[in-house]
Design brief:
about 250 residues, alpha/beta, Spore Coat Polysaccharide Biosynthesis Protein SpsA, Chain A, ten-stranded mixed β-sheet, 9 helices, 10 strands, glycosyltransferase activity
């Protein structure tokens, strides 16, 4: 298998508590041709110092900073702008990958000539695994608009096929906005059903359910520019699917 460079995009804001776990999960990958681009979004804790200590030990780890606190989307875009890899992958500073994640996903994309993929993942609460989110076989634009089934920590896209794609400059729902933009360029995102990542529930990057719904409505109206009735339609579907999801 060829080994194209993978650029791993990680935003960080006051992530000192968990970021070492995230970085260590990248260092343990059995696929070694990667670069980890961490953009600190004006943290007030020791996040930058932790990242600097890793960067001094491994030149594949690179630290960038925003000029003001601007949100995860802006931080991710800074890393994407500086990325050199063919593949762009995403990992937040409180999540983790299993050791074969990059190897399996890159091979899956190369073998099938897929430009945009994602995987299944587990949910971690405290120190305990609390369930698995199984990825559907594939998803289209029309399907994704009513339910974001692509976990950000599992997504990967091919810049050779679709160019560099950036997050919309909004505080929330940037990942869903990016996936929809990519799905305007390719007909489907395909999943590798294997569980290859761990999402940390209840950390600083998580939100309560009402807050999620508020931002989803804003996303439909202000980002996608849906009229009131179409926004109501997709919001209703999103809410129902979200309720079902959170019962699992």
């Amino acid at each position: 298998m060829s080994t194209p460079l993978v650029s791993i995009i990680m935003p960080a804001y006051n992530s000192q508590k968990y970021i070492s776990y995230s970085i260590e999960s990248v260092l343990k990958q059995n696929y070694t041709n990667w670069e980890l681009l961490i953009t600190d979004d004006m943290s007030s804790d020791g996040t930058k110092e932790v990242v600097k200590s890793y960067a001094l030990r491994d030149s594949r780890i690179k630290l960038f900073s925003t000029n003001k606190n601007s949100g995860a989307g802006v931080a991710r875009n800074c890393s994407i702008e500086n990325a050199q890899g063919r593949y762009i992958a995403f990992l937040d500073a409180d999540d983790q990958w299993l050791p074969t994640k990059l190897y399996e996903q890159v091979n899956f994309m190369l073998s099938n000539n897929y430009a945009f993929t994602f995987t299944s993942y587990q949910k971690l609460e405290g120190e305990l695994i609390k369930g698995t989110v199984l990825a559907p076989k594939s998803v289209t634009y029309r399907q994704l608009i009513s339910s974001n089934v692509i976990g950000c920590l599992t997504a990967m896209y091919d810049t050779e096929a679709i160019g560099k794609c950036y997050m919309p400059l909004i505080r929330k729902r940037q990942d869903m906005g990016l996936w929809l933009e990519i799905l305007k360029k390719v007909p489907k995102a395909y999943s590798l059903s294997a569980v290859l990542a761990i999402y940390r529930v209840g950390s600083g990057m998580s939100q309560n359910k009402l807050e999620i719904l508020k931002w989803q409505w804003i996303f439909y109206r202000d980002v996608l520019r849906l009229n009131f009735f179409r926004a109501c339609y997709y919001f209703s579907i999103y809410s129902i699917k979200g309720f079902i999801k959170y019962q699992k």
